[in-house]
Amino acid sequence: MNCIDAEKLFSEYIEGSLEAGQQAQFEQHLSECAGCRRQLAAERGLHQALSTVGEAELPEGFKQRVHQALMAEAAERQRKPAAKRAWVRIMATAAACLVLLFGASALLGRVGSDTPAAEPQAADYAASVETYDMATDEEMAIEEPVMEAEMGDGALTGANDSRMANATASMERKIIKNAYISLEVDDLNNAYQTIEQMAVNYGGYVVSGNRWKDSDGVYRNGYIEIRVDAEALTAAVGELGELGSLDSEEYSSSDVTMEYYDIAGRLEQYQSQLTRLNELYAQATVLSEILEIESKINEVNINIDSLQGMINYYDQMTSLSLISINLYTPRQYTQTLDPQGFEGLWQDAKEGFISGLNAFCDFIAWIVVGIVSLLPFLLLIAIAVVVIAAIVRRRRKRKAERA
Questions:
Q1: Which residue of 81, 88, 207, 325 pairs with 225 in a disulfide if CB–CB is 3.0 to 4.6 A?
Q2: Could you tell me whether strands 205-213 and 320-328 are parallel, antiparallel, or unpaired per DSSP bridges?
């Protein structure tokens, strides 16, 4: 298994849905690839952080208010359906007549005096009438609050950039620090248990780990990943080195300060926008307005949950450092004498002779079958040779007679 195949199995491995054979291959690859172990640990941390995010709940009293708005709108429609439709038809007829009137006037004016001044006036008036016809009272009522909410969403980037520029000098650095070590120990099982306890002592926990027994039933190889307090990373690595012989030691760090505060700024902007939308929701009375604001509130809540999950992930990654530890014991080579007696020797010899004889008979049969299979071709070749020889003899005989 290579790294690309292993990356496709990260989610299933974290959820524990891999098959036994596939999981064994995956864990074998992890024991040999430090990069995949670090990436698996990062994805496991993100998965744990996102699992704490809850679902957004509807505001209190939402169902009652929607029901009241529906009942009010149904009653209003029952009172004035015919009058409203008649008013719309009258306005549409009047608009069409005005458009025709001003269009004819403009055309006559252009033909009589050759001046195009009336044409733009008629076009402007027709556009205004058309716009008024297409907009209803409810659409005009909902337009203003929705535009206000959308302007808050569009101003996120500019306001956040300004905030980041002013706070850069005083912000707390956010750095993810990790380490990888390879350790040779005499007793792998004891070292493994000691490392598990060390993770707790340093304010962390065990992320993942595994051990493998050799043919003699003793643990010879394994790996374990732990998280410890980031401030105590150096001390923890030093204590781990005392468990055996430290073969390799590697540190890595990643500065995520700008990313962290950029997310924090966007989160603050979305929270402010949510406050304004809740205020508009409390004041809304028209059903279409209520549904529009509710949709916007749900969208903002989703963004808030996503950004909060990323903040939690970065907080965990910067406060707890990951240490990946490869464990192994010195390889012991032993050889034992296992003499083979003469029990069953005659039976083995007899079976060997019969097998050899069968193989010889098979070889002879294969040769005979091959020759028989080639007989038609050999016959054709023989006929061709005889014909060619006869032709050659005849030519020689003619040459001798001419001479």
A1: 207
A2: unpaired
Residue type, 277: L
pLDDT digits (tens, 9 = 90+) for 74-89: 776 666 555 555 555 6
Kindly report the length of the chain: 403
**Bridge partner residues of 210 (DSSP):** 223
Backbone angles phi, psi at 99, to 5 degrees: -65, -45
Residues 6+ apart with CB under 8 A from 239: 198
Nearest to 242 by CA among 170, 312, 181: 181
Confidence of residue 126 (pLDDT cuts 50, 70, 90): very low
The model's confidence at residue 111, banded by pLDDT at 50, 70 and 90, is very low
To which residue do tokens 């458009």 refer? 99
Burial class (CB in 10 A: 0-12, 13-18, 19+), 114: exposed
Three-state secondary structure call for residue 252: strand
pLDDT mean over 79-102: 59
